[in-house]
Every structure is written in structure tokens, then in C-alpha cells.
Amino acid sequence: MIDPFANDHQSMQIGELVIENQTDKIIIYGDIDLTLDAAGYEQAQQLHELTSKIIQAFENNDEYNNQHQSKEKDDQLDKNIDNPFL
Fold this sequence. Notes:
By secondary structure, the protein is an alpha+beta fold. It has a domain of 55 residues. A three-stranded antiparallel sheet has the order 1-2-3, with helices on one face. A hairpin with a 4-residue loop joins strand 2 and strand 3. It is 34% helix and 19% strand.
């Protein structure tokens, strides 16, 4: 299992799905068939573990948390923004 956003050299594969780790992004490509059997269950478990680790990395990242504040708490709620469709 990779350690999300920790380095630029880890990769893993689940079925034909390839996951490449980088310090600024996770690259996922390929495809996977989750069959309703033991093999499909194991692959689904691996996907679940991977996505949980990725979400945890976002939640533990102060830079991400500071950039993505709730709009309800944003100081610029009343800021006028030009309509790009006019």
C-alpha cells in the first residue's frame, strides 16, 4: 500500500488499475472489474483502504485545510464577483 503524497517513487496495482504516488498528486489510471466473488471482495477492500488513506492525508494536511475553508466562515461572503456569462 502506498503512503499518499509522501514520495515520488511508490506505485501499486489493483487489478488493471495503476496508482502512482507523487508528493503533489495521486495518479490513477486503468480499469478494474470488481466481480462478486472473493477476488472482487479483496480488490474492493484494497480500494477502500487506499481511498481512506488518501482522504486521511487531505484531512491531516494543514495547507489543504487552510485553502478549503467553508464558505459560511469566509470573510468575503458579501464580495461582488463579475458574472462571466455577461
